[in-house]
Specification:
Length: 181
Amino acid sequence: MNCSPLVGLRNQIPTSGEQFSLRARSSLSEQQREKLVECFEQGMGSKAVAKALSVSKHAVRSLYRRFQLHGRLCLVEKPTKQQYSFEIKKEVVQRHLAGETKMDLAREFGLSSDQLVTSWSWERRKGGDEALKPKPKGRPKGSAAPKPLTEEEKLRRRIARLEAENAYLKKLRDLRNQGRA
């Protein structure tokens, strides 16, 4: 396979009949990813491939790490985002801090990327084991409905409102009297 540059692919706009299947948050098209994997299989490294195909070094390096982890399966997109339990995260982080490599841990636990180990380790360093626990999803629930007012509280509020209204009317009367004088 020839690993020559894919000229103009980055700026190509699909026509109505074409389908562009881009991964979320990826600057590489499906065709570019396939070409990159073919180059990886030939033994080329991420920097050489990025330069040869004139694509982002970061995107190529990310794909290369997934290729090292999963082989050609790195091209298969999973339908949903994988979620990992607190126990798995905790064990992975403990073993990583004990000296095991991110890549070995990612292979053993079937992680989608070795970068998960890095982010989990960082979260644990920052917030302890609690930071690895799942966070509630979605919008937080609002406060409970206010308790119904007692008869006494209703009367207190009515008195306060009437006193304020009375004070307003007195002030208005005084201002009108000043204007006449």
